Amino acid sequence: MKILIAEDEDFNRELLKEFLTNEGYEVLAASDGQKLIEIALKNKPDLIITDIQMPNISGDTMITMIEEYEDLSDIPIIVTTGIGEKNYKNLGMTRNIEVIFKPIDLEKLKSVIKKYVK
What we know:
- By secondary structure, the chain is of the alpha/beta class.
- It has a single domain (2-114), classed as Rossmann fold (3-Layer(aba) Sandwich), CATH 3.40.50.
- 40% of the residues lie in helices and 21% in strands.
- It contains five helices and five strands, in the order E-H-E-H-E-H-E-H-E-H.
- It has helices at 10-22, 33-43, 59-68, 85-88, 106-114, and strands at 2-6, 26-30, 47-51, 77-81, 97-101.
- A five-stranded parallel sheet has the order 2-1-3-4-5, sandwiched between helices.
- Helix 2 (33-43) runs parallel beside helix 3 (59-68).
- The mean pLDDT is 86.
């Protein structure tokens, strides 16, 4: 399974990358929303994990862009955010999106990812 992560904080991105690699996933990484779109179009990941607040293209704009690309619109998305639950609890109601609040509980992340393992 190929997972694309987007996180602008280097430490968090590397932590997620190492954790997911150790779990046996192929991991691609982006430092902003624009790079995430570029990598997703080129590599068609099975799952996207993205921070919602990032430079260049924010996570919510990036989600809208993904939905507009036919090749990407079916990819499940896990959104990570440090912003309060009230702001994003309805995000997953329009498509296949899970929201995980920071600090990320890696065991919870692992169980959410397993929902999408084919």
